[in-house]
Every structure is written in C-alpha cells, then in structure tokens.
Amino acid sequence: MSNTFRLSSGPHFRDRHDTASIMKLVCISLMPATIAGVYFNGIRALIILTLCIGSAVLSEYLFDLACHKPSTIKDSSAVVTGLLLGLSLSNEVPLYQPVLGAIFAIVVAKCSFGGLGKNFINPALAGRCFLLISFGASMTRFDVDGVSSATPLALLKGGKAVNITKMFLGSSNSLIGGSILALIIGGLFLWSLDIIHTPISTSVIVSFSLMMLLFGGQGFDLRFLAAHLCGGGLMMGALFMATDYTTSPSGRTAQVIYGCIIGCLGALFRIAGSGDSFSYAIIIGNLFTPLLDMYVVPKPYAYRKSAVAARNGDKTGLSVPKPVITLTLITVLAGVALGGVYSLTKDAIDEQKRLASLASYKNVLPAAESFENVEKADLAIEDLDGEVYGKGFGRVYINEAYVGKDASGNIAGYVVNVTSMDGYDGNITLTVGLEPDGTVISIAFTHLNETPGMGMRAGEPEFRDQFNGRKVDSFVLNKGSSSGGDNSIDTVSGASTTSGAVVGAVNAALDFFRNYMKGGN
Amino acid sequence: MKELFRGGVHPQDHKDLSRSSPLRAFDWTGEMVFPLAQHIGKPAKVIVSKGDRVLAGQCIGEADGFVSANVICSCSGTVKAIEKRRTIAGTIQECVVVDGDGLFELLPGVGEECDVYALSGEEILKKIADAGVIGLGGAGFPTRVKLSPKDPSAIRYLIANGAECEPYLCCNDQLMRSCPEEIVKGMELMLRLFPNAKGVVAIEDNKPEAIAAMKVAAASHEGIVVMPMKTKYPQGGERSLIKAVAGIDYPASMLPADVGCIVCNVGTIYASYRAVAFNEPLFRHVLTVSGEDVVSPCNLIVRDGTPFSALLEEAGGLKEGAEPKKALAGGPMMGVAVASLDVPVVKTTNALTILSVDPDEGKDGKYDPCISCGRCGSVCPNGLMPMMMMEAAENGDWERYEKKLYGLECFFCGSCSYICPAKRPLTQTFKLMKAEILAKKRAEAAGGKK
Q1: Same domain, yes or no: B203 and B86
Q2: Considering the domain A19-303 in this protein, what is its CATH number?
Q3: CA nearest to A194 within chain B
C-alpha cells in the first residue's frame, strides 16, 4: 500500500467549467443574434459568418502549425472571434473581406501577441477595424430590399427620423448581428451564468447615454437616445466586445472607469465623427486596460474604509463609496443645468438656425426677399418620411423646399435643400436655387466634408459654377476628357464619387421641383 | 439564514457517502506513532524514554513554551522508540512510537467527573492546556492560548464552528447530532471566561439534523444561539464566520480576538468539555473516512497515532478494481495529499479522503493561459485579485504581490484554484509565495540583527 498515491498541493477539486466550455457558452449566447441576422439578411449572412469562423479557426490552426506550437483551436476562442467578427460586418461586404478580416484578427491581433489571453486588443474588433480602414466604402454599404440606402445612424446624423422598432428587432441595422433584442437575450443569458462583466456593459451604456443626452444636441429626447442605443455596433460592443475578458480590466472600479472611457468616446465619435466608430472607442478602451490593471486594484475587503469603520464600531450604514456619490451628483447637476439652458435657448437657437438657412437660400436666390412654404412640396416631404427620394439619384434625401418671393410678392424662384449620403466621406448637403422655369441659378453647399484637395474641390467655383444658368432635365457627369453634351458636368479630377454625389443631389432637386413645386403658389 | 461573506464556491459536497453513518469508536491495536509537533508552535518535549510503560491519556510530550501543546498517548503499551518518522505533511519528524498492548488501560483519574462550577477561569484554562487541547479545525492552534486574549471582557462572540464546509466531511455533523449537550456545556464553560460574550453555534444549512439537535440542546441556555448558515465554501473559515456572525472584516495581521471574536471548532469545544469535566485529555477525536472508492465510508472516533491504512481497513478497504489517485488528510479543498497510508492520525486530522480523480493528472505542470475572466476574484472570500497575484508571482514582482495586491492576506481556502477555468495552480502558487516572502523577511530580520 505504500507510495501508491499522487502528491500535489491542494485544492484537489476543480470546477467543471474550463476555458473551452466558457467559450462555448459565449457562442451559445450569440446564437439568438446569429439566427436573427440570418433571418433578416438571408443566406448570404450565413455564408459570411461561416467564412469568418472557418478562416479564424483555420488560420489559428495553421499559425500554431507554423510555429511548432501545440494546437490551441480546441479552446474554441477562435470560433468566438470569428463569430463576433462576422456579426459585426455588413451583409453587403464582398466575400473575400470576412476572410481577410478573420485572418488579420487571429494572426496579427491574437496569435502574434502570444495567443489566447495575451492579446492587447479584442481580435474581432481589430479585424473589423482593419476592414473598415481598408475598405471603408463597402464596409458601410447598407441595402434595403436591394436598394442602396443610408444606415439608420447616418440618417440620424442627417437629422432624419428612423424606425426604432425595426432597429430594435434587427431588420434595419447595418450589421448582421444588429438585432438588439437578440443581443440583449444573449447578454442576459451570460449574466445569469455570471460570465459577462456587468459593470462594464452597464457603465458603457450609462455613460454613452449621458453623453448623448448632454451633448447630442437633441436635449432630453428619449427617442433620439433609443435610436442611438439601437443603432450600429453599440449594443454588440457593450455586451460582447467591451466585456472581452482579456482586454478588459479585472477590478470592479477599473471596469467602471474602462466602461466610461468607451461609452464617452463612443458618444463623442457618434456626435462629432462620421459613420459608426464604436469599434474604435472600444479599441482605445482596450489600450487603457493594462494601465487600469496596474494602478486601479481593489483593496481586500478587510482594508476597505467601510470594514475599518465597522471594526472601529462606527456604524454609518452608508457604504456607497464617496466618488460614486460625487460623480452622480456632478452628472445630475450638469444634466439639469445643460437641459435647462437648452430648453431656455431652444427657441432662440431654432430662430437663428432658420435665419442662417434663409441667408443661405438668399445666396442661391438673390432676387427673393422672403421664403414661403409650398404646401404640395411639404406634403411630399412628409410622405417620404425620411426615405430615399426617387430612383437613380443615389441615396438622396429632400430636406426642405421653399418658394422665394420678391418685395412685391411675385415669385422670384425656388430653393430645394437636399442631402446625399453617397459622398466619399459621409454626407453632402446642398441647396439648389432655381428660376421659376427651372433654370439653375446656383448651388451652395451647407455641409461638405470630403477629402481635402480632392473631393473638397467640389466646393470651389470651378466645379460648382458649372450648374449655373443651365436649364436641363438632368445633369450627366462627364468622366471622360472630351466635352459632353449641354447637360454634362465635368468631374472634379480624382473625386468622381464626390462629383457623382453632387450631380445626383442636384438632379434629385430638379426632379422634386418639377414634380411638386413648379407653378405652385 | 445568514450569508454575509462575499465570494465563495459551491463544490459538489459528496457528503451523502458518509452523512448517515453514526459515530463509532475505533480502537486499533498495533504500533501507534505520536509526532511531537501536532500543533502550531514549538514541538513538545519528550518526557518518556524507550522501554517505558505508558497508559492511555498519559502525557508523553510536554508543551515547550507558551504556544505549544502537550502530546498525549492514546493507548496503553510500551514505548518502542523515539525516532524520526514520516508524517502527514510529508516531512520527517521526531515521533514517540508506542507498541500498543490492546488493553487501552486508562491513566488513573481520567474520566472522573468533577464539579465544573467549582472551577475558576484559570483552573479551566489549565485543565484545557494539560489535556493538550488544540484547535481541531485544522490549524492546531493551542486552545488555551486562543482562550486567553489580552482583554477577555472585549470578546463579544464565542463562535462554535460547526459549518463543516469541506466536501466529504461529516464527522462534525455526526458529533453535533450525537453529543449536542456536551458541546453546549463546553460553550458554557468557555463563556465563563468572557463575561460579555454571546455564544453562537454556526452550522451550514445542509445539516438540518445537526441544527435541530443543537437547537434543542441550546434551548435551555440563555446566551447561546444556533445560527444556520447558507451552505457555501469556505463558510467554515474563521474569517468567513466572523464576517457572517459579527459583520466584521479583519486583515491577516489581526487575530479574531482583536475584533471581539473567538472561533472554536465544535470538536475542540467537545474536547475542552471532556477535558474540564471528565479530566479526559485529547487523545481521540472524530474523523470521516470517505471517497467514491471506499467500500463503506464512515465516521469514526479514532485514537491519535493510528495509521491511515488501519482507517481504510476499518471502512471496508477499497472497492474491487478501484484505482484511487489521491489520499488526503482532510477534505479535497484544504486537505493535504499523502503519498502513502503509513502515516499516523494526529489531533488535527479530521478526515481520510480517497479521491478517484486527480484534476492535475497528466498536466505535467502545464496549464492553460489566464483569460482574465475574473472568476477567481469574484469567489475570493477576502476580496483579493488572484489573477493579478499569479501574474506578479510569475513575474517575480514580490513588491507588488505583497504591497499592492495584499497577497499575504490569502488563507489558502482554494476557491480560486477550484473555479479557474484554465485550471491554473493559484492557491498552490500563493502557498509558495507566502513561504518564500516570509523566509526572506526572516532572513532580512536576522541580517539586520547582525
């Protein structure tokens, strides 16, 4: 009976969960979002997801093989990475992009830093951002029923109404994993198993909401907030990406700080940036993780202030840490102050805005002294309900249309304000001034944010003034060097996307004018 | 229902194997081995020599210093040798080896009832010390020392630890079910030392019979209450109990008495009562023999010095074809693995557990990488950050380990290692770290003196 037993230091019991089983639970929690994504986007979404997962697992396998390391694919973490990457892509991406993204995620972001547990940024997000930077246009493409359309977030940014219910269910999100309902179900599942770090998700969402309400420019508008919460990659980011174990801090306080960094940056990017940049917010948050883990370490219970107080017999009963109270107070005060100022100045600001746009309308229609609504046109705009106008103009939206009258009350002309989402770098908003007979007087840009030296040159007179004084049904972009017909517009060299968007916008304005305004009032 | 310590885990308890097996005395005859260091503190001094005839209950090793305890012979027989033998801890220690004669003749006076009400506090403490009573929960702290805090009037709670949160163990459950009166009387004796203290019997709620029995016994005693605790490991840890009963967290640098609490295992209280009221030294105690491969797991009243192999035989031996992987002195969470069964039972041995599965088998010291899931941190009853401590230990950053992460607060309950999905040896590493850091400190202190 001697020396028959194994020796080792205790404990001699282990929980049944291992790394692979946790990864599998994460995969299960993503299933509702996957199913919803395939349901709303069709078989193509399934192909994209399969490609992502397949290439992620395969590249990890090959990397390990090439490095003569034992294969690590059994821990299922590559499956999670691939699935997350696939869910964060648009259904319209060319099929080579998921493969490239997954390879980048696994080989560059994960394996070359030492594999599972060693990566410093979330691999799936790294893959997504790699694709965003490399193939910006196709990554943000978003089609509804085969028609190219703006993402709900882009609509929001353009001040349009969006269908929040659709966004919540996931039928109108730009991402495959865009069903907020499904994501929340998955998140709750992980929460019930205590796998997700709830302080992170909570602080991301709360800080994002606060930032949006305070600085979103819409005041305390819950619909606006809900639309933003349901839009783009926020919910997936907050529930599944920011909470990635390896790249998020471990201490409770550090997790809250980390969540707030991501939430605030995400809101900032949404307010001031273009497109959906929540991925970048999370990646920047990831970079703070080592710092937070180094310096923001929770004290053992026995060393916390409340414990010391309890030992000394001080029963304060209040164990909420001071910073929490202070921060909450500051936030509430700032919110109340900003909200108050906003509501006090809202009318004045709106009046100023109106005057400013009127001034811009006067630029394109100098003969007009006053601008009045056109009933038919207003009804048409209302009917559009934030949808793309017409066919063949690209993703163009009609914002406003007025009839301009001179001092004696005669019709001096018309103005139409339109926005095109087809710019190279976001949207282009411009106003077209028209003679009563439909001749273009001039156009003016109210929002143009294209590549400097290229697309931005669309705003220069050389391009802009080509429209002036011409009366055509529609303009055609002349891409060649030879001069085209009398409706041709020469493209800005090196910026055909921008030029095309401008021409589309002007054509839409002309079309709208002919259909709803000509001869009105 | 109390659940006031944070963290903790819920390992499968496997208590059904031995839960319903009543205590039975197990008197084994043969070569009994008594290590001289069964307690925390200095080893006892041998006071017998080879060839002497000794009796059950006779002191054979005398406490050497304040923090030390008497070693008691558990059988009658002849001292065969005083030599170095292997003990549970795996080390080789000075032991008294007695050849039992099978008569179990008691030392005269042992078992004589005395009038406990006539005793002063000082006399009670002396009797407990003479009986060699130490904490039977595992640490083996001399009970006399524990019961002599600087300011006895500052003690608010005397906690009888009947939590028994280790998987497999049922011996204290059985002790509480069969001897509740003695435990309550023992508490009463101890409470006489602490005028302002209240007695609390803390029992996990997976032992309803023990709770009921203790409640009946405590009903007639004002100042002693039974407090059922939510079942959660390590509920029976001293710090977890004090947090649950008194609501106080205290650091490792403090003793329970510093926060007004004294925690004694129910076994210790029983032994103290027998020592004071019946002059019976501590030479036998309750113990569980259990494991899936054991034919009939049981709870025994076993004499110190009995070899582990005899315990297994008494429990029917191993099942046919069984291939046990590990033998543990104690339960699977905090127990110590022994290489062979020819080591003796000591006072603090509360179980022999045979494990048929070894989670570390085939790992060869390799383990998965940490994915920072944070489970270790959320189960730590001290609020430590094991994953960071592990990283600091691996990086050799002792400064951060000790100062920033409070690594020395760890009392090795094993919850973090249990829960870790990557099966990393967290607790195991922390044990080494503590030993190394303390050794370094001692070396520095010694160097300073020179």
Answers
A1: no
A2: 1.10.3430
A3: B375
